[in-house]
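Lab manual, section 2.4: Encoding a predicted structure.

Procedure: take the sequence of the chain (379 residues), apply the prediction step described in section 2.3, and record the output as structure tokens. A sample record is shown.
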Amino acid sequence: MITPEQEELFEYIRVSLGAPILEVELLDDQLCVLMKYCVKDYAKEVQNWLILNQWQTLAGKNILNTAEMQWALTMRTFDYTKEYSYYFSKDAGLQQRGPWELKKDYFSIEKGKQSYLIPAGREINKVLYVTPNTTDAALYANAGGIIGMGGFGGVGMAQVGGAAGFGGGFSGLFVSPAYDTALLSSDLKYKQSLLGGELVYKVTAGPDGSHIVHLLSTPGSKLSFMFSGLGTNGIFGIKGCEVWYTYYDVSPDNADQCKKDNTDVLLTPDQVPIDVMSYAFFNEPTKQTINQLLLAKAKQTLGLIRGKFSGAVLIPDAEATLDYNMLIQQGIEEYKTVMDELKQRLELMRPENLLKRQADMANSMIEVIKNQPLGLYVI
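Recorded output:
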């Protein structure tokens, strides 16, 4: 349906091409199609500029929809919390994409075991490498430090608030403020990430359609911060912890289709999901750019129409030849001019150019301040 705004624009196009004195052989349906592709051409330049300048925040991200993309474009973060919530949003049926049900399962970590078998028929979506909960360790902390489960030399669990433990049992009261426990837990998490580093995994193909998850480094080895020299698990040990992973049930017939429908990690710029732009939501300067592109396209199209039979048309008792090449050349040149102006405007908005302008402004301000009089008068 043609809106009143489009009707006004189409009237402007026809008047610019000579109506009503000259007949303009362009229908509203033709102008609607040309307008749609002018919007697409404009969107291609703007969206490619956006991806170019923000690709470092998009590459490797779990992008579910345009809202996820907007987050990646505007927030510079490691996004671990958001990745964690991503699994559960899909698990709750909020994936908004395809008929595939996201399921989850886990395997328990064993000391010295690096590789774990995932049954066949499971297309792994993501592995969520779970680390131990430091809150429990904070609960058993005393004023002098932390003693792990099992303790040293037969001493029992360390007590909260400095109370003593005897014979491996547990006594004393939880007299420390809850804030202290929460603060200590956060401190342990930071130390764990600082000293132990990020836990790493990789997935390889296994026999008969199965997969193998390899944990790096081997849990309990001397290369891992989780290693305990006394042979115990320790407060930071990962023995017995669960590694959760999400997956789709697939068969050999639909495994490729599942991968195609659930491309969650962006590897190349063409995978960035961006909505189609609508003319109705553009601001006035942008609409003016689209209008200029539409006029240029209309000239090219009208020139092609009039160029049929080399521009020859029959009039009463004679034959006339229309100059169709002029319209085509004008349309091509005007279209190129508008797109060049758009590219120049976008170039000025690149982050490095904006920073350079800000630096120039700051330097100019410094020069202005340096040349100002001090305001001291000597009589």
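Check your result against the sample. Residues 33-60+286-370 form one domain.
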